[in-house]
Request: fold
Amino acid sequence: MGYVRPHRWTLLAGALLSLVTSATGLALPLVARGLIENLTADRAISGALLWLTLLVIGNAAVGALGSYVLHRTAESVVLTARRSLTSYLLRLRVSAVDASEPGDLLSRATSDTTLLRAMTTQSLIGLGTGGLTLVATLVLMGVVDLVLLGVTVGVIAVAAVVIGVISPLIHRASKRAQKSVGDMGASLERVLGALRTVKAAGAERREERTVHAAAERSWEASVESAKWSAVAGNVVGLAMQGAFITVLAVGGARVATGAIEIGTLVAFLLYVFYLMAPLQNVVQAVTQYQVGSAAISRMREVWRMPAEPEALSDEPARSPSDEPAALAFEGVRFRYAPELPLVHHGVDFEVPARGMTAFVGPSGAGKTTVFSLIERFYDVSDGGRIMVDGRDILEWDLAELRAAIGYVEQDAPVLSGTLRDNLLFGAPEVSPAGLDETLRTTRLRNLVERLPEGLDTVVGHRGTKLSGGERQRVAIARALLRRPRLLLLDEATSQLDAVNEAALRDTVADIARRTTVLVVAHRLSTVTSADRIVVMEAGRVRAVGTHTELVAANPLYAELAATQFLTEHDAAEAAR
Reply:
């Protein structure tokens, strides 16, 4: 009803047109009875014939208009649901998305919402108009002959009991079918997202079986739902045939005894035929409701997932200050889920405004998690707090906080679209001069000149038309265009060649004189130029200092530095 409410007036108009269609249809048997009576009494039939013709034409015209209005409104309901659900999906907490399958979430926003179309026209309106028409038809049948009405109602009651038993079976089968569609989407998204890995491992057949198994489960559940829906529909058909035969037998006997006229029997039989449509509408409404409610229950599961606050304005958020940001972690303890072990065991460090701070340590030390907590992709779960400019990060408006941060992820994702779209993704208002300056800074000018359509070249799904180093430079340029107060670089130069890395390292050092830069790095060349280095191990900060201080005072850092130095030295020797 929440999705329907914005369209309630057009929906009401469609329902009224459907009722008018039903009313004109209900008048047809009465006019037909008058026509037969006039023929029997040898009276003129031109007037009745004219009324009959007008009713038939009017019924068709109003019915077509009503059907269009209802279907248009149903599509609008689907659009409303998709807008609402996709907006909520984009605001989901990262933790909620991590615990779900993206393909399944996609299925809920596409195939599940599609079922609202039939639910609106068949279930909501069908039950209302079909129910009213059914009642009106039964009333008119009672006006024509109460005895024949009793016979008809008795047969229909048996069918209603059978349908009441079948309906829950349709609901359960439909929910299984929709879940299986979501599983298939999740399996397919998993394969397509790592297609190179799948092909390199020769695992196409195995993954194919996984996707096919989910498709077959959906097929089995859909067939079961279709089976029970078919049974329900045929029960109605059988009931109407039984009612027709019974009415014909009982009505024929009543005509023979003179209890009713032949015109009355003909009119009643026409009503029996006419009763089929509203009865089918009511049965379809019930079965479609079972299918639609299964989809709605899956959509409700999305609405119960934790989400971030909705943005108060369509305008891009702005940071309350342009000055470099200061940062502090105070006893931060964090785990990704209640059942998982702690990732941070009381992390403490301070980063003053301006300058570059490097985070080093073995894999799994919790370095990337530091950046995720700063961006508030996750919130501190087990104690401690994070301060930005001396203010608890939880007190910040989320949009303002992220507007102050430029973030380059470890895998430097590039979105499908043009190179220009990707560069301006976080700062659409940047001037051409500002864009050109950033292209120069990140050494992307040569790439732009080499591409067939320059900045307007489509880079492909996830930037497949770019090399790994080019994707990293695009991600860095995208972050720099935001003019961040706090720049987070998570292994941002890992795929760059030595020349581009050295140039970008100089650029980052220059930026660090104007803003606050945090770098997760494994290369000694990046670390030695940092103003301070935070050494992490097993979710704890082991030491903070400069390269020279830590080499002399911290065995862990000395070991990491020596290993890294040897690696770079060997690489240089190999290059010679």
